Amino acid sequence: MSEKGHHPAPLSPVEQRVAALEALLTERGLVPEGFIEEITRRYESEIGPLNGAKVVARAWADPEYKERLLTDGTAAIAELGFGGPEGDHMVVVENTPAVHNVIVCTLCSCYPWPVLGLPPSWYKDPPYRARMVREPRALLAEMGCPLPGEVEIRVWDSSAEVRYLVLPQRPPGTEGMTEAELAGLVTRDSMIGVARL
Amino acid sequence: MSTPLSLSDLDLPRRNGELVFDAPWQSTVFGLAAAVTDNAFGGDREPFRQQLIKAIAAEPGRPYWESWTAALEALVAALPEQPAP
Question: What are the tens digits of pLDDT across the range A50-67?
């Protein structure tokens, strides 16, 4: 990098490794021009939890859509134009007054990209991955989502080919809202299952 | 309506959206894995996922994107010598 005069900071070891990978893969013709910039832009500004919020709002507003969503998540999500990597086998799990669902990937970081974007850092960290399976009720309470003892917690491990999305309960008092207004209520964390609305 | 709270040991986000990459090398290595998946494995993400699982299991405390980098290095090391024409 010294030939670029304007880049005085030395690269860290991991930056050097990534630069070496980039050089090697580019030389082998595996990285089309502009590919990295484009995919970064898409995941930073286009593909994110707003997609999932639209799916949830549609399900709240349209009972027939909700039924399709719970029967075949991938197809129903595709109806709204969302699909792609990490979204081939989507299963939507519905929260009810008696059941609370939460998603985790115990082995790595599998996550429903088309509807939630890339996972937040805590989702990928060992404490969440281990504790959500071992002691979900305690962890959810620590995360600001305490649940009454009678509510059953179902933990869905995304480590198979399946990617899960939680359909949160529609908040009371939202009966008159439009679908767009409803979408504005839906948070990423509620679709992971670490928050309730 | 409850608001998600922060948890010190998990560094929970407070907002619905957060920056997904903390540094340019992270987005680069993310994009490189996607490029290899698309162009050397026909879009099949499983080979990379298996390497990522191994990399995380090998050093559970390592920062996530460093494990991702190690996984990509292992995947690339196993590629055939010559690229497809």
Answer: 899 999 999 999 999 999
Entry pTM: 0.85
Domain A48-192: top CATH class: alpha beta
Write the ipTM: 0.83
What tokens appear for B78 in the block? 């196993």
Of the candidates B29, B30, B55, the residue with the CA atom closest to the CA atom of residue A16: B29
Cα of A115 to nearest chain B Cα, Å:
13
Q: Is A109 a catalytic residue?
A: yes
The Cα–Cα gap between A193 and A182 comes to 18
Domain with CATH 3.90.330.10 in chain A: 48-192
List all residues of chain B from 56 to 85 with a beta carbon under 8 Å from chain A: 56-57, 60-61, 64-66, 69, 72-73, 76, 79, 83
Which amino acid belongs to residue A41? Answer: R
